[in-house]
Specification:
Elements (H helix, E strand, L loop, with lengths): L12 H19 L3 H10 L4 H30 L3 H23 L8 H13 L8 H4 L7 H19 L4 H19 L13 H8 L5 H28 L3 H19 L19 H28 L1
Helix pairs in contact: 1-7, 1-8, 2-3, 3-4, 3-5, 3-12, 4-5, 4-8, 7-11, 9-12, 10-12
Length: 310
């Protein structure tokens, strides 16, 4: 791949990128346990519990399908500059949060499929696909212990807010302010021009090629694990307790536990994107598609389980 060296900006560009990432991760952490719970409760108001659960799972599956279909296209579009993907991805996340808030607030009578489409587009567009040379960016240091613990505590704090009567749609609107603020430091990050050599159909061919089986299997398992943590576990907690406070506390405790096990390798509350921040390349697309495919596999397995016990 060919890289164009960026111009040095005042200050530390690595700190701008870390600030951007932290704000986006904070928005994700706030709603990590409640997003699919709110959607399930929205469906439950119009149908039976079993059908609402299936509809929630299928909406999650729609998001993963959109991501798989869009990733090769997004990779080719980002070759003109990695920052474009980050900007578009952040804007898509903001749109998804605002639209979810509008829907839950009752301003739209229906239209939940758009949530899946926006979340899928966010998954395809948003990633940190590079590490600019150390001479320019400096080392990509992990967030401090306090910062990671704060992220893990955000579901509990959100549970407190919901228990005190703050409406769910307000939580979505306020969460959208964080990625909006995250756009500011992003524009201070140097841009990098990269190439993506595979065509659209060619990318899918490489995904199932025997030589990439190891990458696919690892990504599948990581995707299944992510869906278990951020989709299945919150729904299980919901059926265990109806209290938002207890739900938030239980999920924060889960994230603290995950953090303790992963502290030596990666943050506890993190989107699984781009090899933890390495150069964008063709194999990154395979990993991202494998992650989404793993989430999709678990989702359909859960749908089959629900149908079996209905």
């Amino acid at each position: 791949m060919a890289f164009i060296a960026p111009t040095r900006l005042p200050g530390d560009p690595a700190s701008y990128l870390r600030t951007h990432r932290y704000l986006v991760r904070a928005a994700s952490a706030i709603l990590s346990v409640f997003l699919w719970i709110f959607i399930f409760q929205y469906f439950s108001a119009f149908t039976t519990v079993g059908r609402a659960l299936i509809q929630t799972l299928l909406l999650y599956a729609l998001a993963q399908t959109i991501a798989i279909l869009l990733i090769p296209f997004a990779m080719r579009r980002m070759r003109g500059g990695m920052r474009r993907g980050l900007v578009y991805g952040t804007l898509t996340l903001i749109a998804a949060l605002v639209y979810s808030g509008v829907l839950l607030g009752g301003l739209f009578p229906n239209g939940t499929a758009m949530i899946g489409i926006l979340l899928g587009a966010y998954g395809a567009l948003y990633r940190v696909p590079y590490t600019i040379e150390h001479a320019v960016m400096g080392s990509q240091e992990r967030s401090g212990l306090f910062g990671e613990m704060l992220l893990a505590a955000l579901p509990f704090l959100t549970g407190i807010a919901l228990t005190r009567g703050i409406p769910a749609h307000t939580v979505f609107f306020e969460s959208a302010l964080l990625p909006l603020l995250a756009l500011v430091p992003l524009f201070l990050v140097p841009n990098v021009h990269e190439t993506f050599s595979w065509g659209y159909r060619e990318t899918f061919g490489h995904l199932v090629a025997p030589e990439n089986r190891g990458v696919l299997l690892r990504s599948l398992w990581q995707g299944i694990s992510a869906a278990l943590l951020f989709l299945a576990w919150p729904l299980i907690l919901l059926f265990t307790t109806p209290s938002y406070l207890v739900l938030g506390a239980a999920f924060s405790a889960t994230l603290f536990t995950v953090f303790l096990f992963r502290a030596s390798t990666r943050p506890a509350v993190v989107e699984q994107h781009a090899d933890g921040g390495t150069y964008l390349d063709e194999y990154t697309s395979l990993k991202e598609m494998g992650l989404a495919l793993g989430r999709l596999v678990l989702c359909f397995a859960l749908v089959a389980l629900v149908l079996l016990f209905q």
